[in-house]
Each structure stands twice: as structure tokens, then as C-alpha cells.
Amino acid sequence: MRKILKMGMAGGGIGAFIGEIHRKAARMDGYVQMTAGAFDIVPEKSLEQGRILGLDPARCYGTAAEMIAAERALPPGERVDFISVCTPNSTHFPIAKACLEAGFDVMCEKPMTMTVKEAEELAALVKRTGRVFGLLHTYTGYPMVKLAKDMVKDGDLGRIRKVVVQYPQGWLGNLARTMPLKAAWRTDPKASGASCCMGDIGTHAANLAEYITGLKITEVLADLSRYLGGRLDDDGNVLLHMQKGVKGVLTATQVGPGEENNLHIWVYGDKKTLCWYQENPNYLRVLADTEPEQVWKRGNAYVAAKSPAAGRSTRTPCGHPEAFIEAFANHYMNFTDTIRARAAKRKPTALELDFPSVDDGVRGMKFITAVVASSRNGGVWTKI
Length: 384
Description:
- By secondary structure, this protein is of the alpha/beta class.
- The chain has helices at 17-27, 43-53, 64-73, 89-101, 116-129, 143-153, 171-178, 180-186, 189-192, 197-213, 301-306, 308-312, 324-343, 358-376, and strands spanning 5-11, 32-38, 82-86, 105-108, 133-135, 160-168, 217-225, 235-242, 247-253, 264-269, 272-277, 283-288, 294-297, 382-383.
- Strands 13-12-11-10-6-9-8-7-14 form a 9-stranded mixed β-sheet. The protein has a 5-stranded parallel β-sheet with strand order 2-1-3-4-5, with helices on both faces.
- Helix 4 packs parallel to helix 5 (116-129) and helix 7 packs across helix 8.
- It is globular.
- The model has no long low-confidence stretch (mean pLDDT 96).
């Protein structure tokens, strides 16, 4: 029986999208209790969000610093067990750092920091403190992505030759027309960091490619665009060099009219190809020259037999779709099971450790930095 863990949250106030997703996902399996939060920089709004969630008003704080100090002062059995950081990009690093230094495990939104230096400092702090750190790269939480990873690892595709990953969206272009002030901060380096499109969704695509193939991106050649006239990119195309001589193409945009969340990946081996589509995530296509196309369907026993990670990440029978929030929940399940294992002085299993870590956060920041540098220098190969 899993111990119920107490959750604190920085950010995620009234009207915030991602904070509510975190709360739903963390509580999905019934083993996490929302306990405390600094939900908004306006104390009254933070208190109101806490009231909506049914929290003790004394556990609803005006700032993350107040929450960390007050919770740390409580007895171990009463304080929160971990804190989720769901604030704007520019505040991820100081809040996560303060949490770790105070002895709290952390689940953080991405991008993890604003710079590579901050990311490496955070990774060193995680190592020094021994705390558990999770990063919400959502898409590796899907069961069929885990199946794809195990197929590659087992050699089903043969030697990997090429990866193509695309992530087109259209919301930023629409937002620029309807709510220009809200669109403006997303292309402001003080708020978003060095990149908008590549920092927001390009890193998801890169993380997905590395997760499925087990290969790191070593070099990039990038061409970023600013169609909205902002200070940061809203579109980009990147050529990839990966380990073992694998080549790749990554394209992302946030100004494609009509596109919603069209993340799509193809992995080409010398025997077979696999293809996964985020907007239809319960199916994995496998193609070959000499065999009929295969469609693997989430929830079937043959999926769990092939991939224990996919089986562990599945909650409902086949034909009952699972998707975005469940992918979040899978990361929270593994993250919190790792916390429980550490508390029991037990080494976490490989399945429990199957969630994005601080090292993925460092990889993400190095990817963003290299892509931006490549584009600024006229599209030259730039090492990660």
C-alpha cells in the first residue's frame, strides 16, 4: 500500500492552466493529498485558490519563500513531502533551489531554468542534497511512447538511421491577434528565456526523440523565425546529429493556423519504422517493407508483455482512451514512488525511476542554447 504524500505548490492560481493539470494528475491515483500552496503573488488570490481546493487557510501562503519556511518549521509528519513548481519560467530556478536547500523534493515545470549555468547548479544541488527532482516533460509519460522506447531498445527496428519529429501549434498566432499583451510576454526573454517556440515545445520534441531512441543529440543546425515580430522565435527548423551516427529533423511552430497539439514522431531503423501521434496517443504504428502494417493498441495484454513500463502506466482497459492528464499522472506516480522508496531506504526500481529528471532539464537548456546560437550565427553546426 502506497503511503499518501502531502503536496505543496508554487503557482497554479485561479485561471492558471498547467497548475490545475498538475493537481489533477498528482491526485489521480489517490496517493497524493494537496496540502499547501503559494498559488499567486497576490496573497488574497492565493487564499481564494486554497479555499476552492478546500485547504486550511493557514497553509495558503503569499509567496513561495513563505511556504517553504513555514512548511519546513512543521514536524516531519505534518509538513508537505514535496513541492511542485508551476510558476513562470523565470522563477523556476530560485524556487526549486530554495525547495531543495530546505529539504523538499521537487517536481518542476519546464524549461527547468533560464540558463545552462542555472541548470547545472540545480543538478549539482540535487546530487549534493540527495533529493528527488522531477521535470514535467509530459509526452514521455504516455504508455505507447514507453512501448516505442522498449521496441527500439530490444532491436525491433534494427539499427536506427533517422528520427523525424514535428510539433506544430497555432495558438500563439491567434493569441497575438486577440490578446496581444498575453502573447507579448511569451516572446520576451526576461519572462521566457532565450527562446519561445524552441524553449516551450521544441524541447519537448527533442526530449521525446532522445527518450525513445536512447540516443543523445550531439549537434544542431538551426533556423529560427519571428513571424509575429516579437523578440524571440515563434517557429524553427533544426537538423540533428545524434549518437551512433543517427541523423534527425526537428520542426516546431506556434503560428500554424488550425494546428492544435500536433506532436508526431517517426523513428526509422534499417528493418522497421515506428510512428506515434500525440493527438491519437493510444496507438503505435510499426511499418516494414515485407510485412503488413502493425497497430499496437494501448491497454492490451500484449503491450504490457512487451513493455512493463507501458503496462505500469496503463489504468483502463483497451478501448477506453487515456491521454494527456494520465501521462502527467504517470510521471507523478513514478516520482512519488521514488520518494517512497528513498524514505524506506530502498533503492528505487528502474520502472519507478522512469520519469524526467534534473539531467533532462540540463539537456533541455543545452539544446535551447545550442539552437539559438546556431541560428544567430547564420545556421552553423553547433555542439551540445
